[in-house]
Amino acid sequence: SASEKGGWSSFMAKEVSEQPDAVANTLRGRIADGHVVVPELSAFGDDVLAGIRRIVIIACGTAAYAGQVAKYAIEKWAQVPVDVELSHEFRYRDPVLSDDTLVVSISQSGETMDTLMAVKYAMSLGAKAISICNTQGATIPRESDAVIYTHAGPEVAVASTKAFVAQITALYLFALHLARVRGSLTEAEQAAQVAELQAIPAKIETVLQVEDEVRQLARWMSDTRAVLFLGRHVGFPIALEGALKLKELAYIHAEGFAAGELKHGPIALIEPGQPVFVVVPSPRGSAHLHPKVVSNIQEIRARGARVIAIAEVGDAAVLPFADTVIRIPLAAPLFEPLLAVVPLQIFAMELAIAKGLDVDQPRNLAKSVTVE
Ligand code: AGP
After folding, report:
1. How high is the ipTM of this complex?
2. What does the DSSP 8-state code read for residue 209?
3. Torsion, CA 287, CA 77, CA 155, CA 254, rounded to 10
4. Is the Cβ atom of 63 under 6 angstroms away from ligand 1?
5. Recorded GO terms, molecular function (predicted)?
6. How many A from CA of 40 to the centre of ligand 1?
């Protein structure tokens, strides 16, 4: 009903706007004196966490993209190898696991059958299991050894938004806890990451101000037949997420690529007028990657692509080559996904609205997929 939506036109619009709170609530009570404390992980004991040799993240859809983002942070901070697997692929391919493997499942609903089956299977092979979940008391956290709840609040729209940023936040808390237990980051390094996390809610609030600009863009593009998304490093899973949002909400063919992969095939898709969103890494924080992505933009622009760049405030290098630049505030590289995803969510939502579609209940989809 209208009152449940609190004055918003849809649950999705409401949930997109709640993302600053979703992150703040996931952080609440889990930071003390500049470091992360996740009491939920005491189920294992620090010696067990220190002895983990490998992490396997299992999830589906948007939750799996949160896992792909977190892989970069976990490997950098905790120095444990991470594989990210789709639950339904993991379950049926005889994965090699041992008792020093930690399985981290990610599920908003906690009821996704594919993920539940994968967790049970991994545990039957001796792995330890942590659940990142948004729904208190759901099946997957009950089956797992430990749970870190994302406190994003109920997510009603089928398209996941606030749960996604909360999942990344929870996974970063997990990564920092692990890094502390393993001694892989100094106190100062931990404090710096914690400060970045704490600054995210206000920065998302700033990004939400792009709404009118992105709505205009979506209206201009409402008869677009295909959209490509490019990203690199943590921007790669964000490109995948931007494409998924557009498929599920606006029923437009969309594909995300790692920008470095362009020349290995996808650049053949570029023809005059082809819209391409590019998630541009920070010129300061990712000085080695930024010029590579700018040169990708030049390459596709030379072939007629219509480039929409999501770039940090002050990044002037993209200006000569992008048709549209959507600005996000400065953040350390690993934290950019929490900002860059927001305009992509809004774009997909606004394009669906421009096409007269139901953004909360896209066709053929269910909020929680409880069948295999
Ligand atoms: C995202 O917008 C989706 N509707 C979908 O990919 C979802 O993230 C996936 O089905 C996983 O759901 P879960 O988090 O409840 O397990």
Report:
1. 0.98
2. G
3. 40
4. yes
5. carbohydrate derivative binding; glutamine-fructose-6-phosphate transaminase (isomerizing) activity
6. 24
